[in-house]
Design a protein that fits this description.
- The protein has eleven helices and ten strands.
- By secondary structure, it is an alpha/beta fold.
- The protein has a six-stranded mixed beta sheet, sandwiched between helices. Strands 4-6-8-9 form a four-stranded mixed beta sheet.
């Protein structure tokens, strides 16, 4: 990866950095608030939203989301920052803002990968759930413990988790506050891959190579088709339109030529 940009915000309220690899194919957003277990602040949410906007308008073919430091991926929202909010402030300035940013992540046209190197609780798990792929370290625990604090998951956790693992298992995680290990998360379909902490980057590189080795426009269209199908949208018409769009791309011509020539294709995203 290339050197990261300057932090959009600095400690003690946390940092969020955006960097691109030398070819501009892979964007990496790195957040860091290790002394507070990477708890998310309003400033970090704002910075994350800004970074996602830049990725959206870039030529990147994939996004990696990860924490820079600490044994924990993210423990969620900073309790000290939201505990004193009035009800309207909680709705307007905290919950709604988190939803806006996490929805932007979930609907990013590029596929996204969360590298969950440690425990992910509350808003930290919700952040990972907003990504298309989750790679977890084998020692990580995941959970949504908000009801034990007197509140509920507020950044899309109940909806996204239910779509992934079903209502019964989601109730076990949310209502009974069950913390699940990475192996169980893999069995349930909550994470895509599990690896030892020392092997996370190798697992990530393998996944990113697979994503970026395909035609970027086709990948992004396919992601939108799958997301639409998950929301109950009928896909036949959309697949026809998306297929028609790919027929006009140079990438399809290159893919066909490479297939005929029995060589690896070189896609340009055009």
């Amino acid at each position: 990866m290339s050197e990261a940009t300057e932090p959009l915000f600095g400690s003690p309220i946390g940092t969020v950095e955006l960097a691109f690899d030398p070819e501009g194919k892979v964007a990496t957003i790195t957040f860091d608030r290790a002394p507070k277990l990477n708890a998310l602040t309003p400033e970090m949410l704002e910075a994350l939203g800004q970074a996602l906007t830049e990725v959206k308008h870039s030529r990147a073919a994939a996004l990696v989301l990860r924490a820079r430091a600490g044994k924990v991926f993210c423990v969620g929202a900073d309790i000290e920052r939201f505990s004193g909010l009035a009800p309207v402030e909680m709705w307007r300035d905290w919950t709604t803002r988190g939803h806006d940013v996490f929805e932007a992540l979930a609907h990013l046209r590029q596929p996204s990968v969360a590298v969950v190197h440690g425990h992910a609780f509350g808003g930290g798990l919700e952040l990972a759930l907003a990504c298309d792929f989750r790679i977890a370290a084998d020692g990580a625990l995941l959970g949504l413990p908000e009801v034990g604090l007197g509140t509920v998951p507020g950044w899309g956790g109940t909806g996204r988790l239910t779509k992934l693992i079903g209502a019964a298992r989601t109730k076990d995680v949310v209502l009974a506050r069950r913390q699940i290990d990475a192996g169980t998360a893999l069995d349930w379909g909550l994470v895509s891959r599990v690896a030892p902490l020392s092997g996370l980057d190798a697992e990530l590189d393998d996944l990113i190579r697979s994503i970026t080795g395909a035609a970027p426009i086709a990948v992004q269209l396919a992601k939108q088709l799958i997301d639409g199908a998950a929301e109950g949208v009928a896909t036949p018409l959309l697949e026809s339109l998306a297929g028609g769009l790919t027929a006009a791309t140079a990438d399809l011509a290159e893919g066909i030529a490479a297939f005929r020539d029995r060589r690896p294709p070189t896609f340009g995203g055009n």
